[in-house]
Structure formats: C-alpha cells, structure tokens
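Input.
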Amino acid sequence: MTSRLRADLHVTPMIPIATQNPLPFGIPQTWSHMATTLIHGDKEAVLVDPPLTKAQADDLALWIKSIIPNKTLTTIFITHGHGDHYFALGPLLQHFPHARAVATSATIAHMAQQEEPEFYAGWWVASFPNDQLSKPTEGLVKPLSSDLTIDLEGHTLRVVEAGQSDTHDSSFLHIPSLDMIVAGDICYNELHQWLVEATTADKRAAWVAALHKIAALKPATVIASHKRPGAVDGINNVYSTIEYIETFGKFKGESKSAEEQYKKMIGRYPARINPIILWLGCQANFADGKPLGD
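Output.
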C-alpha cells in the first residue's frame, strides 16, 4: 500500500547581485526569491530545484532536517539548467550524501553550458562574487530513467519535457497524487519574469505553449520557482505568466528603446517584485534603439 504524500515549500530571501554598470530608475541590485519544493511520504523524500549559493544550501539543509527529521532524502530533481536552480547542489549533498541528483539529458547539456569557464566566471561569479558559489563537479547530476519518472514510496512522479520557458529545454514535475505541478521557471508567481532568453515572438509563443501544457493537466497547485513568499500557489499563476509574456511582446513592438519598454511594463505591473529581472530582459530585447530578435 502506498503512503500518503505531503509537500513543503522553502523560499529564499532575495540576495544582492553585482552588476557591471549602474542600474537606471533606482532599480535595486537583487536576485529573485527562489522556491525549493520538498515532497515526502512516510520514510522518503524528493527535493526539487536547490538554490544558488553555499549559504543558501546550508540554510536549506537545516530547513529540510527540521521538516523531515526521521526521513531520508533520496532524490533531488532539477527542472532546467540555470545555475540558480542547482549550484547549491554540491554543498547540499554534503548534508545528504545518500541522495542522488537527476535531470533530463537536455537539462544536463544545458548545465554544461552554464559551467563553461568563460560563462561561469563572466556571469555567475561576477554576479555573486567573494566565494559565494560552489561549481558542481562533473557528473554530479545523472540522467533520469528513460520513462522520465521518479518513484516515491509507490507514487509515480512524472517529469514532463516542456521545451522553451525562460530558457531552453525546461521541464516540470507532475505529482498526480497531490494534484500538483512543480513548474520550475515555466511559471512565475508575482515576480518579474526573465525574458533575456525570449527575444523572439517564436520563443515567447513556445513559452506560452509550455504553460498550456501545465494548464491542460488541471493541477490544483502550481509551484513557481520564483515566487513572492506567502503568495498562493494556484493555477492562476499560469495565466498571469502567460499575460506577462504577451504584454512584454506587445510593449516591445510599441517601444523604441529598452527604457521605454521598461516604463510601460512597470506601469502595467507595479506590484511585481525585483525589477532588475525586467530591466535585463528589456536590455536583451533591444540593441542600438531597435528591437532585437522580432
């Protein structure tokens, strides 16, 4: 007989990010909240998307031990290759050495790109300096089984490859027995969305299609990896994420510069958290005063 599953959510505080150039409009230099999901039965647990820094890994480990003091963390699943969803993995595994880390083969290939020396130093270390990060060792994350499932005490957790989201080759985790989806960066919850890697209408449409894949499963709970602490994790966030993407594309077409697009988006979404993410997206979508990509 299978056990009953539970799920708990850990959300990091925002942390400082170093930038090469001063930010306009008084934008704070902060990195977004990051949510990690813990799914557990009577004896075992699965974790989804550990965060970014060594300090965050230690904080998360203490939290896990407080939530499941007498259970075993068996599996850590990573939804996509962005470093803020797995760079804390090495320090975390020092606390839980018997856990295995898994991802899709496409995500593992994306991780290799994130870890290339020039990109790792030029973006991640430059953004989070002073020995905050621990670069994962080669082979630390293993490919999922060919059926893209994780077993948790008789419950089948299904990994769905969704393609483009705020980056390429994203996936999400469907937990049917909890009527829940852990969406990674496919879905956002009241934070500005990363559109740095969605500079074309086709990429934005592909991201919307990934969100419709989630909506088609009619989950009661949808966990966004970047969320406001305390915000409700409902399917409403799928539709608000779609609206944000489509509004971004509309305002891009109506704007002559990144600054103009940014002001329009802030006017439409004044309550969303962490505008540096929006600004970086607007910058990436414009070059020399002209829309880039579309």
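The chain has a mean pLDDT of 96.
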